Amino acid sequence: MENITKDLQKLSIPITSVNANLANTRKHEPENIEILKNSLSKYGQRKPIVVQKKNMVVRAGNGCLAAATALGWTHIAAVVVDEGSTDATGYEIMDNRSAEKGSDWDFEILGKKLAALKEEDFDLDMVGFSDDEFNNMLEDLTPTDGGIKEKEIDEDLQVDNECPKCGYKW
After folding, report:
1. Which of 10, 16, 66, 127 is most buried, taking the most CB atoms under 10 A from its CB?
2. For the chain, first and last CA: distance in Å?
3. Least confident of 43-47, 59-63, 83-87, 160-164
4. CA geometry: angle at 47 spanning 43 and 52, to 5°?
5. From residue 69, how far is each of 4, 62, 169 by CA, in Å?
6. Taking Cα atoms as reference points, which of 93, 96, 130 lies closest to residue 114?
7. Is 150's pLDDT higher than 60?
8. What is the mean pLDDT of the chain?
9. Where does 6-101 sit in CATH, by number?
10. Strand partners for 13
């Protein structure tokens, strides 16, 4: 249980009591499991998985469970929810879809943060970025004296907007 953040340890349950969702709507490639294993090894578990009480099936956190199991963990922090299959399945799909929909990066900020980590000799693989991915990202951004700036701005971009309800202009 030493791998679980202190505040989450009260949610700890035996890992053998939890069942991976074999019908999970989101698949985890081996590369993703490696990233999760690296994260769990370095940072420990900082957020619980979500388990449906009926059959103790994971509804959010299947990748985390796979990584923790591969690391030989005996316990995992879990929120156990007593709900029917319809709600459990709905939550599972929403959790995966919201992660997908919120997946746009602010590459300027990301580039700066990765560069700062790299300056500290931080292994970028620990956060899921290879050196090649980092270098390719930097090539897509234009360096300036103060760091990284955005690419050229589209001069034809409409910047005058008006709220259709109240008429406010910006």
Report:
1. 66
2. 53
3. 160-164
4. 140
5. 13, 10, 55
6. 130
7. no
8. 83
9. 3.90.1530.10
10. 76
